[in-house]
Amino acid sequence: MKMRNVTIYYFLIALSAVCLFGRGPAAAADPAPASKPYQWRFPVGLGGVTAFDDVADRYEDNLRAKGYTVDKDGAFPVGISFQPYVELNTGLRLGCGIGPATFLWYGDDKDDHYRSYHSKYDDDSNDVHFYDVPVNMTIGYTFMPTADFSPYVRGGFIYHIAGGDYVEGVTPGLFGAFGIEFFRNNKVGFGVEVGYDTSRIEFERYRDNNVSIVKDFEEMDPYKVVISGYAVF
Predict the structure, then answer these.
(1) Do residues 222 and 198 lie in contact, with contact meaning Cβ atoms separated by under 8 Å?
(2) Cα 101 from Cα 196, distance rounded (Å)
(3) What Rg value do the Cα atoms of the chain yield, rounded?
(4) Helix (H) or strand (E) holding 160
(5) How far apart are the C-alpha atoms of 218 and 229, rounded to whole Å?
(6) What percent of the chain is predicted at pLDDT more than 70?
(7) Residue 169 — pLDDT band, cuts 50, 70, 90?
(8) Hey, which residues does 191 pair with through a beta bridge?
(9) 58, 204 in Cβ contact below 8 A?
(10) Cβ pair 173, 196 in contact under 8 A
(11) Is the backbone peptide bond immediately before 100 cis, with ω within 30 degrees of 0?
């Protein structure tokens, strides 16, 4: 918990600094785009992750080991992403971001996400959940900053604010991405991005050996490849 709190603390400091820089006196003067030494851009969109099925499988296997039958109706591998950044007129860009947020939930309420046919742990709750909200700090380069269309690259550090049943710990990782933005000189532009995330989450792992429930731990990549589409304001 201490590591998680420190990471959030430094992330908020960095995000505040970037926001203050982007909304400083130069922004208040609102000069023409060509004369600005930098501009503040706000990408908001949706991102999907390729490794989330592995997380869902871990939860499903744990529940089966405890005597439940499950489905995956409660797994959502697509989430909202917000990745603001400051871009210098040289093409250099600095940003902080949050998302895409993902979550997973299995419960035996009226939606009947899983049904208990027997339970070796009668005192366990029948509801399990998992949430994951990654935050990142990146530096990058826009290849044609004054053009209406431009590819870009960015990379930096990423940390997953993750919790829920079976989550033991989080290891920060590196993040790298390549993307393309369209209609950059319009009030609203669009972009697509493909990124790779090396961070890891440690989960409890339960196995049924027909005598008892055995518990150990397993590290997993929660996201790996992240594919995003977004609007830029």
Answers:
(1) no
(2) 15
(3) 21
(4) strand 149-164
(5) 31
(6) 75
(7) very high
(8) 181, 230
(9) no
(10) no
(11) yes
H helix or E strand, kind and range, residue 148: none
DSSP secondary structure string, 53-109? HHHHHHHHHHHHHTTEEE-STTEE-EEEEE--EEEETTSEEEEEEE---EEEEE--S
d(CA 97, CA 83): 4
**According to CATH, what is the number of the domain 2-232?**
2.40.160
Distance CA 20, CA 98 (A): 18
Which of 177, 160, 223 shows the shortest CA–CA distance to 85? 177
As given in the structure block, the two tokens for residue 40 are 């503040």
Q: Cβ of 148: how many Cβ atoms within 10 Å?
A: 12
Q: Which residues of 166-197 are buried (b: 16+ CB within 10 A; e: fewer)?
A: bbeebebbebbbebebeebeeeebbbebebbb
| 159 φ/ψ angles, rounded to the nearest 5 degrees | -135, 135
pLDDT band at 101 (very low <50, low <70, confident <90, very high): very high
pTM for the predicted model, two decimal places: 0.77
